[in-house]
Design a protein that fits this description.
Blueprint lengths: L12 E6 L2 E13 L2 E8 L8 E4 L7 E3 L2 H8 L4 E2 L2 E2 L38 H4 L7
Antiparallel strand pairs: 1-2, 1-5, 2-3, 3-4, 6-7
């Protein structure tokens, strides 16, 4: 079996198509994985847990040289990202999001306003009953 020559090099900026959407990405390494040589691809602006391994020789249809704009021009068409029609450019997450634990509705119910308490002040005449006891 002949050794495949990688089409992409380590550090090269590429377009990686995931689920039909093109993303700006970078080949961060070329390594052996499960006995096959693979590109390790990092999506620009995404956490490294989303990095993918693409086997050398099977990158056709998944990895492309150039920018997302060049890919769109070459491939044509408009894609939908998140249900909204875009120019075909996938937008990477740039803000850090944190997972919020689910709570029951009772735990986050609105607080009722505190009841107003009328301050009862007795007139001076009514306070005195003739004794000086407190």
């Amino acid at each position: 079996m002949s050794q495949l020559v990688p089409k992409f090099s380590k550090g090269e900026n590429v377009v990686c198509v995931s689920k039909g959407t093109p993303y700006k990405a970078k080949v961060i390494n070329i390594t052996q994985k499960s006995g096959a040589e693979c590109y390790i691809v990092h999506f620009d602006g995404w956490n490294s847990r989303y990095d993918v391994a693409i086997e050398v020789g099977k990158e056709d249809g998944e990895l492309f040289k150039g920018t997302v704009e060049e890919y769109q021009t070459k491939m044509g068409g408009v894609s939908k990202v998140g249900g909204a029609s875009t120019s075909g450019v996938a937008v990477a997450k740039t803000t850090k999001t944190t997972k919020v634990p689910k709570t029951s509705k009772k735990a986050i119910s609105k607080k009722k306003p505190a009841k107003k308490v009328k301050k009862v002040v007795a007139k001076k005449d009514e306070q005195s009953d003739g004794s000086d006891e407190f």
